[in-house]
Design a protein that fits this description.
It contains nine helices and 28 strands. It has about 600 residues and is an alpha+beta fold. The longest helix is centred in the first third of the chain and has 20 residues. Bound molecules: zinc ion (ZN).
Length: about 600
């Protein structure tokens, strides 16, 4: 690419005088997207500035050099694509005020469909190339990569409030342009005001990095609250461009006529183009391929990769990013393993009809998970009551319990939304039998096999079948319960307990949950989807972790942003606080509607 040229006023004036047919990229290429009054908006991408920052690390620099060498040594051979390799994708929205989650998920799915079309050469405007532009570039063929991008739907990293079957779209739960919990994914971070339309490393690593897209250049259509694409960058092509960088494509103009982009079939160009240039524009003695995704033209005027670029991306994928492809089998559903296959729109989490996005003709319904019965059941019983706790079941929106004194004919029944039951008015000194089942959107699970517990004699304050730590969770709501949820995660990230979202206007109501924890380490994550915590503007919410005896072990005062974490371990049945973490970047003060 052309090195950043600091143009003086004189030089700038000269360029204007000669009335160049090309945009000579007067702005600092790596700088913020400037839109001088009276001029068209110009694409900007700070890939090189970002990559140069990464290269300051000697280890990164050496690894980067080797990756380049490897790709240079590989043969660029085009074979017909019979079975595209799948790359798992996660989309992370950041700093969205009052987010509309369903809208953002749909926006992300539409954007991934565009990415797939562009990379597979099935974009509708490819006809501009085949019908007309190609004749200006004899010997250059369009490139169709043998890649498929899948918005992951399974086995999500924990701590982001994502359920099995929902798309990997996080909202306000990541920071910056790196998150190691999302290693092996191609991450797309959507941020407000990044000072360019986007950036990416030149050759991504797949260790939690990804591409960054400005909230005004992500997706297409009307967008959503806080994330709405603006013309002329509202057709989703900023992502196509940045993902090109992630797979080791430089800008097509390289570094001017004498230094190219290391892709053999792209013509040399003196500089970048902006707007919508006419066919036949030339420099360096050849026609310039300004309709290439790796130029700076408007979304509507870029529509093709060259075959050489596609080969380079495929070579980079196979030589340096195979671990992403390996990951796909465990996080991408079989239904979105190829081309235009649909992805599920969070149908399970919401309990509504299964959303299906059909980008093409191969439309089939999404997979649904089966509803499993509860497991890891623990019972705490006193002389007159008992509490049955169990691990939260993926996809369940409630539970049912049947219980009776052993030998009795009739069951008593209870329902619960959270993963525990409280049985009251029990007879002292009695053996009870019980069974429980999960209630999911599409039906109920089997009951667990009949099990028993015994109540104590009168005056007995409870026998605990929990051999570890009996932990009570007490969540005090503010007025905006619909924004609040929590997860208790084990070391593997499995959610042992989840709660919420709750009803609004329950200020001061205390939600009680409990867990029996064996020795190990755990994280309690407390979320607020609006980003203003649960204290203190709309009530005095808080969360407390208590020993079953009532002793306070740890707490959140509720004045967090989107999420508060309490990391702790249980050793020999004893609670040990490790760290209370509060991500600071996205705390915000905002005024609510009502
Ligand atoms: Zn770029």
């Amino acid at each position: 690419m052309k090195k950043t040229v600091l143009l003086t006023g004189i030089l700038a004036g000269l360029v204007l005088l000669v009335g160049c047919k090309k945009d000579l990229d007067l702005g600092l290429e790596e700088g913020p997207a400037e839109t001088p009054i009276g001029q068209v908006k110009k694409r900007s991408c700070s890939m090189h500035a970002h990559t140069n920052r990464l290269l300051e690390d000697p280890n990164y620099r050496e690894a980067h050099r080797r990756k380049f060498e490897k790709v240079r040594s590989m043969v660029s051979e085009r074979n017909p694509c019979s079975a595209p390799v799948t790359i798992p994708v996660a989309v992370h929205f950041q700093g969205v005020n009052n987010p509309d989650a369903a809208c953002l998920r749909q926006l992300a799915m539409d954007q991934i469909r565009i990415l797939n079309e562009d990379f597979r050469g099935t974009n509708s405007d490819i006809t501009k190339w085949t019908n007309e532009a190609a004749s200006f570039f004899p010997g250059i063929s369009q490139g169709e990569t043998c890649m498929n991008f899948c918005l992951a739907t399974k086995n999500h990293p924990s701590g982001y409030g994502l359920t099995e079957g929902s798309v990997a779209v996080t909202i306000n739960t990541t920071n910056g342009d790196f998150d190691e919990k999302w290693a092996d994914y191609l991450n797309i971070f959507v941020q407000p005001d990044i000072g360019a339309l986007g950036y990416a490393p030149l050759g991504g690593e797949g260790k939690g990095d990804g591409v960054v897209i400005d909230a005004l250049a992500f997706g297409t259509g009307n967008g959503c609250t806080g994330v709405s694409p603006e013309a002329p960058f509202n057709l989703g092509r900023t992502l196509t461009h940045e993902v090109g960088h992630y797979f080791l494509l430089d800008h097509i103009w390289g570094d001017g006529c004498s230094t190219d982009d290391e892709v053999a079939d792209t013509p040399d160009a003196e500089a970048d183009y902006a707007g919508c240039p006419a066919l036949g524009a030339s420099s360096c003695g050849s026609n310039d391929m300004h309709m290439n995704y790796m130029d700076y033209t408007d979304d509507a005027c870029m529509y093709v990769f060259s075959a050489g670029q596609s080969s380079r991306m495929e070579n980079y994928l196979s030589s340096s990013l195979q671990h992403l492809v390996d990951k796909a089998s465990s996080v991408c559903g079989t239904d979105n393993g190829g081309g235009d296959r649909p992805t599920c729109l969070d149908g399970i989490q919401n309990g509504d009809e299964t959303g299906v996005d059909c980008g093409g003709s191969n439309c089939s319904p999404c997979n649904t998970t089966t509803c499993s019965p509860p497991s890891n059941i623990n019972v705490v019983a006193s002389s007159s009551s008992a509490v049955i706790t169990f691990t939260v079941v993926e996809g369940a929106n409630g539970y049912q319990c049947k219980y009776r004194p052993q030998g009795s004919d009739d069951f008593l029944e209870l329902t619960a939304q959270l993963s525990f039951f409280t049985l009251n008015d029990l007879q002292a000194g009695t053996v009870y039998e019980y069974e429980i089942q999960s209630v999911c959107a599409d039906g109920t699970s089997d009951y667990t096999s009949l099990a028993t517990f015994s109540t104590g004699s009168d005056g007995d304050h409870g026998s605990c079948e929990c051999t570890g730590l009996q932990l009570d969770i007490a969540l005090t709501l503010d007025a905006w319960g619909s924004e609040v949820s929590y997860e208790l995660l084990d070391e593997e990230g499995t959610a042992l307990k989840t709660g919420g979202p709750f009803e609004d206007e329950q200020n001061g109501v205390v939600i009680e949950d409990m867990a029996c924890l064996e020795d190990g380490c755990y994280t309690l994550a407390l979320f607020d989807s609006f980003g203003d915590g649960i204290c203190c503007e709309y009530g005095e919410g808080k969360l407390e972790l208590l020993e079953h005896t009532g002793e306070l072990l740890a707490s959140s005062d509720g004045s967090y942003g989107f999420v508060d974490y309490i990391d702790f371990c249980v050793e020999g049945g004893q609670f040990q606080l490790i760290e209370a973490r509060r991500p600071t970047n996205h705390n915000r003060v905002a005024v609510k509607k009502k």
